[in-house]
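Give me the fold.
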Amino acid sequence: MDEMRTERCGKRVRAFLGGEAVADSRRTLLVWERPYYPTYYFPEDDVRGDVLAARAVGLRRHDGHVAFDWGAVDSWFEEDEEVFTHARDPHKRVDVLAGSRHVVVAFEGVTLAESRSPRLLFETGLPARVYLPKTHVRMDLLKPSQTITHCPYKGQAEYWSLESSATSVPDVAWSYRAPFAESQKIAGLLCFYPDKVELQVDGERWT
């Protein structure tokens, strides 16, 4: 861990397990153990070691600090706001911009969506995404999926599968019904996976 990037979080971070706060600290470190997002490391004095040991939760320790796997607890909070999926990276940015590009989504020759008023989402380190109003999408060809995912920057996503008499493709598109504040501009809009459909923007294939 000595070669990994580390910085102070500056926020109060809490982890809850079985209704108990097993970690509660205003001195949390963010440690980049992998390239894409950091891990919370708590000072050992701010971790309920007795509760963790009793529940057989494996810990990682370094230089007087403790970390544990994200799924080892029930919920995480920065201040009083719950965080999902992984720790938030303070250097990551999400920009949603209104656009006028001509977007066409098709599958095996069938047009699924067409719009000239997309919202383009730019997220640090990830490909740009194109979100479309549902009124510009053939929703009669899509069926709600049971799949749900969470993003620490955008919120909870729900999914749609392509369903027709001839074709069934799971989870071709997703949407955030109630995204977090920084992503409010994509609320209720639909985004298609470019590797599952043919997505063209201004006549060029979008990947």
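The longest helix spans residues 49-54.
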